[in-house]
Design brief:
Structural class: mainly alpha
Order of helices and strands: HHHEEHHHHHHHH
Oligomer: single chain
Largest sheet: 2 strands, antiparallel
Strand content: under 5%
Distance between the termini: 103 Å
Low-confidence stretches: none
Mean pLDDT: 82
Shape: globular
Number of helices: 11
Length: about 280
């Protein structure tokens, strides 16, 4: 150590060199990790399991093909709406023995967007009936029309306002706009009826799935998302869109049944209700 370093600094000594200012920390530009979706191997395995399950319970590979194609087109309708409304890139998941689900990367900006996403699946999913109707036109075999009916059934049952089906996400915000207690009471009651319907017609996996979902909703503290709630005008439009989508799905199913019922509308409705295990 030198003598100048040992003595105190004098008034004529040069000022010590200032340390360079620290570079400001850069804000991270990386957002939350994106959902990579189902791995290809698990997606294939899930699809095969679902197809085998449908073939086993329905007794026809046409029904299995209709179920898989109907689920994929239905979920792709959700994906299109999610991506269009800034919630994407959305992903499709195939759930063995149950069906499918579409998962967004970001929450909906408002409950109105959530309603649109919920109804996009059943509305778009009806397009999956096209190839099966065309196969019936070309072959004349009734099983293809039955496959088209099964697709209409998939979309119609999804509109039931029971958690976690699409109908609960489309109609729930409308009921909550009137009164949150009304939403809870209605969805729980309808969910219980849907569970009873599943048990009564032997759809035990579907009934168990709904029962778990309803119980999960009962245990939740807050049902409504933190997004912007529906206005009264949006609630009216949501209800109108919900009823229109349900009517179109029901009409599509009846149209598929008309040739099987000899062109009789009452008979087609009766057969359709029987297919849904009502009025039998």
């Amino acid at each position: 150590m030198t003598a100048s370093e040992q003595r105190p600094r004098g008034p004529w000594d040069p000022a010590p060199e200032a340390a360079p200012p620290a570079a400001p920390a850069r804000p991270s530009t990386r957002g939350p990790a994106l959902d990579a979706g189902q791995s290809p191997g698990w997606a294939i395995a899930s699809t095969l399991l679902l197809a085998a399950f449908l073939w086993w319970i329905m007794g026809s590979w046409v029904f299995a093909a209709a179920g898989i194609f109907g689920v994929l087109v239905h979920e792709y309708g959700h994906v299109l709406a999610m991506n269009r409304l800034g919630m994407g890139p959305a992903r499709i998941y195939i759930i063995p023995f149950l069906g499918g689900a579409a998962r967004a990367q970001r929450p909906a900006a408002s409950e109105w967007h959530g309603v649109l996403v919920s109804l996009a699946g059943p509305a778009f999913g009806l397009l999956a009936m096209g190839p099966f109707v065309l196969a019936w036109v070309l072959t004349g075999e009734a099983v293809w029309l039955q496959g088209a009916l099964f697709i209409a059934f998939i979309n119609l049952i999804n509109l039931a306002p029971a958690p976690p089906l699409d109908g609960s996400h489309a109609l729930g915000p409308v009921l909550a706009r009137i009164d949150p207690v009304l939403e809870k009471a209605a969805l729980v009651c309808i969910g219980a009826l849907a569970v009873w319907w599943g048990v009564s017609n032997g759809s035990y996996i579907f009934a168990a799935f709904l029962a778990i979902a309803v119980l999960g909703h009962l245990r939740r503290g807050a049902w409504r998302a933190t997004t912007r709630p529906l206005s009264w005008s949006q609630a009216g439009r949501s209800l109108g869109l919900y009823l229109l989508t349900a009517a179109v799905c029901a009409a599509a199913g009846v149209a598929a049944l008309l040739p099987l019922a000899g062109g009789s509308l009452p008979e087609a409705i009766r057969v359709g209700l029987g297919f849904l295990e009502f009025g039998r």
